[in-house]
Specification:
The chain is of the alpha/beta class. It has six helices and nine strands; from the N terminus they run ββααββββαβββααα. It folds into two domains: 45 residues, no CATH class; 120 residues, Metalloproteases ("zincins"), catalytic domain (Zincin-like). Strand 1 and strand 2 form a beta hairpin.
């Protein structure tokens, strides 16, 4: 069971007794209420001016950038393109299709994440002598970042919406996993050496999804 755009989505395996679903929803009602409240807060912070797919402004808190977004109709059915200049982003084409606009914004966001998050991570890697072998940028739904046993770090492009202190914490967290793959006491000791506020940052990160606008998530 998950929450998407304020709606409850229940996925069950083949052969599951569907008559159990009402009882499951009843048992999870407190979680559903909390999750829906988070979606409401998220929308308020996102500043979407009533539109979840065609925002008029985008705030990239991680890097201190505020972008205005404009839309221009062009005779390109089923297609949109985008370009940016200064701190203005223009989406052009079949802008009456909200899904196309959403996809264009997500593509732009991934390019911005590559431009900002990857150098930031590599800089911290050098500063703290924590070796990373490869960096990927993805649109993960439930994880801010991850690290493989081979030292490949994956970063969620949605980190661009999160305050800088929390982004730095995520980057250091994943870098420390290149030494300790688990969350053992040794891992937390290493992380605390790099970020003495790590415990507070970790607790605050649980609520950081509220900064992410609805359009940044893949359409289901």
């Amino acid at each position: 069971m998950s929450l998407y755009d304020g709606r409850v989505v229940v996925v069950v395996p083949r052969g599951f007794d569907r008559t159990q679903i009402p009882q499951i929803l009843h048992e999870k009602r407190a979680w559903i209420a909390r999750a829906q409240q988070k979606v409401t807060e998220q929308r308020e912070l996102a500043g979407t001016n009533g539109s979840t797919d065609r925002p008029e402004a985008v705030s990239l808190r991680a890097v201190g950038e505020e972008w205005g977004v404009g839309y221009e109709v062009a005779a390109t059915p089923g297609r949109v393109s985008y370009r940016w200049n200064g701190e203005s982003l223009l989406i052009r084409g079949d802008v009456a299709d909200p899904q196309l606009c959403r996809l264009a914004l997500q593509h732009w966001m991934k390019r911005k994440a590559h431009a900002h998050l990857v150098p930031w991570l590599l800089g911290l890697s050098e500063e703290h002598a924590l070796l990373v072998t490869r960096v990927l940028v993805r649109s993960q739904r439930s994880r801010w970042g991850s690290c493989s046993r081979h030292g490949t770090i994956s970063l969620n492009q949605k980190l661009l919406f999160v305050p800088p202190a929390l982004v730095r914490y995520v980057l250091l967290h994943e870098l420390c996993h290149t030494v300790h793959f688990d969350h053992s006491p040794a891992f937390w000791e290493l992380l605390a050496q790099r970020d003495p506020r790590c415990q507070a940052m970790d607790a605050e990160l649980d609520n950081a999804w509220r900064y992410v606008p609805v359009w940044a998530y893949p359409q289901r």
